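Hello Y.,

Per our agreement to keep a running log of every chain we model this quarter, I'm adding this entry. I've kept the format consistent with earlier entries: sequence first, then predicted structure.
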Amino acid sequence: MNPASDSEEADARARWVGGGRVCFVGAGPGDPGLMSARALELIAAADVVLYDRLIPERALAGARACAELIYVGKEGAGPSVAQEETDALMLDRARSGALVVRLKGGDPFVFGRGGEEALALRAAGIEFEVVPGVTAGIAAAAYAGIPVTHRGLASALALITAHEDPAKEEQTLDWAALAAFPGTLVFYMGVRQLGRLTERLIDAGRPPDEAAAIVERGTLPEQRTILATLATLAERAAEHDVRAPAVAIVGEVCRLAAQLAWTQRGPLAGRTVAVTRAQAQLSSLAAQLRSLGARVLEAPAIRIVPRTVELPPLDGFDLICLTSANGVDILFDLLAKHGQDARELAGARVAAIGPGSAAALLRHGVIADIVPSRFLAEGLLEALDSLEVRRVLVARAAVARDRLIEGLRDRGAEVVVVALYDTVAEPIDATTAAALAQADYLTFTSSSTVRFFLQSAAPGPQTRIASIGPVTSATLREHGLEPHIEATRHDIVGLLDALIADAAAASGPA
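Predicted structure for the entry above:
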């Protein structure tokens, strides 16, 4: 399916005839996997995205290159964009005919001032849509193994902000009613107010020995859950230096956390793993690492730039070699531009250098005839030993090893090389570079990731370097770095296995 046409369809569905509009979109509490399909669809169609501080990493990755991305976040005791400025931007861009996505952490109508902004739009006669998001109070509790309602323990739930409007003459929280509330209390934005709110609840009659918890950075890999009683919650949070964003939970359901905790498990739990491959391929590896319990630091060091090339007629080749998943996807994009598809490859054998390339071919309806057991040029040449090949097309990056081409020509084959794309540097900013220095593992999946990464960053002294295979390891050594880990199987599965084995060895016997 063509991504461009998908975006155009989303844009057509998103717009109302007659001018611009605003979509309030809940981005969820932090885990990007909790963003809804509608949220992603609207971000991909937006002309303008006004986004808050606490949105998931990569929430903006699907925005169009021409979209205007404007930060309008607020931070307690930190830099903030005034609400009046946000309202003015929203109104101005909508009046200009733009599709505006107002992207908020959690749910836009749960302590997100979404209602106030929607009223401003209604007063101005501008249409809007609301896309709910998973709110932090429920999500953080669930990720901590705390069901906010549970038969026999809590049949009601109250969501409370610990920060009321400071302009109000008097505070409206009814502490006596909250103390008597027959269910779970969840306080948002309450880290700095924790001592005050627990004292008020106890003074109003809430039992001091009632179970309580505070969940820091809920749904993220670095989430922490501190269990306590209502009387000791503030002290325990201070001992562990709990910081925002965090939610405090009061109720007997907190006692279930010891039995129901399910996150922060897995063979890479507690480890930070940096991923340097191109953004287009980064997400799949990052998702697998997160499923293993790792905190993922995304630091793409390269970017894939397709070239404008003309493919020769494919029916003149008896072998077509694909040396990367990127090459496969770009090849099929070129075929599609000429109204062609997988049938153009029908007259040739198709070889993939490894399972990643083979999987990309399968997505386009082609089963690779040849996939070597060793996922590098030498392995592919070995796999071709028993085949007689006369004319070969090698589709690859503009800059790559020539071992495959040389080996085929040594056998008397005519080899046509089509350079489908360039691999260019993606500079790493200073903030990311500083975070990389603290990572437990730094992964490299190609020689180009090594070369371009080292142009703008460096591994930390305690960081273990993980290589996908011998070619990448050789490039690391050329640059004065000895890999601590090299995958035995030279693909992503092998790299993950190597990381798991290394983490297990470091942990020692259970």
